[in-house]
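Hi R.,

Here's the chain you asked about this morning:
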Amino acid sequence: MMKTQNPAIGFDPEKWLNLADARLGARAISVTDDWFAEVGRMLQPTEPVWKEGVFDDNGKWMDGWESRRKRYSGYDHAVIRLSSAGVIEAIDIDTRYFTGNYPPSASVDACYCEEGDPNSETEWVELLTSVSLSGDSHNLHLISSENQWTHLRLNIYPDGGVARFRVYGTPCKNWGETSPGQRVDLAAAMNGGRALACSDQHYGTMSNILMPGRGINMGDGWETARRRTPGFDWVIIALAQPGTVQQVLVDTCHFKGNYPDSCSITAAYVDGGTDQQIEAQSLYWETLLPSQKLQMDAEHLFEQELTDIGPVTHVRLNIFPDGGISRLRINGVIDSCE
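And here is the predicted structure, written out as tokens:
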């Protein structure tokens, strides 16, 4: 059974963006050695897999980054350009399926580059001091830094394999560059929007609906189990900035026999409290979008249907009675730009 080394108690990765996600633009820009398994594999958004009996020219095929056995002093490392500058909350050095070939320990350094990539003059800061790793495990560690970072250097001692390297945090957008009245997606993950809670996510995760682009398949969305009791399903989103909502897009791309019959949205300007209290608070939010019928595999744009309730910080998308949503866009102007 898969284990979790030094779990970060109370930390939920699903509520944060993975800044080292290759589909968002994160890249490995240098590596000391990736003889057995190409370094870019550890940045893939999918879960690692085991392929029994599969070998390539260099040895056993592994889903991650794996260096050769080191026969001299030193250690291996890889430099990662994050998808955007961001504040990092936690790092997961995932060694799943690496058992006799995982690194005994690792550390992480960080730097901030206003432009381009680090060079010989770049100042690196130790973000995660050397920690012991367990094989075939999540190795999740909280990060106590409020600084913004653009690049990370994963050091493994002395060599070995890492299935996935995930960097959970909040992307940093320069909102000062937003023109007064400029419409932006207040819920977009790349702008800092976060999915905080949902009633159910049996088939797809709630954070998917805030990702860029349209979903690539049904798995790249949020889908609940078939409801067999009265009620409805919902997901709560913390907006990147307080703002006035002017337009909503609900996309059921790829959901055909399992899209919700209808949806509605409630919202509020939440001042104080914690993410853990948000579910109870949402019971009393105002209606932003009254109930609207949905269609299969389609984008639904709502503008005239919205109720003017002023600036909000959080929204709750309600789907009736259950089903799947691919993407949610909450377009509006940030409060300070009105």
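One quick note: The longest helix spans residues 278-281.

Cheers,
M.
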